[in-house]
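Handout, tutorial session.
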Amino acid sequence: MSFERIHTGLAVARPADVTFDRRELSLILNVYGHMVAAGKWRDYAIDHHRDRAIFSIFRGSAENPLYRVEKKREGRHAAYSVIGMDGRILQRGRELRQVLRVLERMIIRLVE
């Protein structure tokens, strides 16, 4: 657990930020790499907050994200979702591999 100082000088425990682990990043970057190779995506950003971790995918470097892969803390488990540029949830679930299938279908369409 991390600690945050408050004005009284006492240390107060707070929950650590939600982060992507190595396995999760590997799955996400695998899909991302295929789309970069196809010339569709060019940049990404990773943000960690107390309640969620966000992997944002960009077509260029100065745009709003095309897609966001979010991991939310729900008790002892995580919930994942892929969110489009318009804010619609394209896919969600407890298994990241299943949730990323919505993006993998785009790779298949590019190959065809």
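The second record follows below. Compare its token runs with those of the first.
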Amino acid sequence: MGAGKTAAAVAYGNLALVIRDLDPKEWRPDDRGWLIAQANVHQAVLERAMHAGPVVPARLCTAFANRGQLDELVKYNQERWGKSLQRLTGKQEWSLHIYAGPHVALHHEPYVMRVATASSDNAAIEGPYATHLCALEEACRHLAADSRRIEPQTNARYVFGAVLLMREKRVEDLRTTLMSYAKIARALGITYYLEGPHPPFNFC
């Protein structure tokens, strides 16, 4: 789905795929400005669609040479996608970002490009905030239907991040939990940011 183009829902049995036609001359995945524009549209369309029901986001810039290729993909994945939609019904993706010191969350890129999960959640949390972060992570995991750590960022002040697949009815519990840890966080000199809701980009 690209900027300036109309996306349409196409029915495949009891599923609907949101797609658009693309002129091959427009395809410029090595152009970062073009890629950001596509990501903004991709994210906006999915965020509108999630208000109508569960969504299973495709990878950014998934493209097919013709409708026949798309039909083949649907044929082999329709059952799996249906199960994914059932699993994701009533759930949203939220992300928790934690920085050392006061910090203004400046998001220059779309969420779908900015947040990627780490290859493993098993690495020990180290450093001066380890005890607090371990307790906070455990509390959040207890509330979430699923959770994954975010790939470490190049920002040296970014000390921890996680994406949380939350049932809509538990989001307020998550906010309450973060508030209960906030006093200790202030004493430690760290800042929390909770971002969402988003489609389940990291849980499909």
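Points raised in discussion: The longest strand covers residues 91-100.
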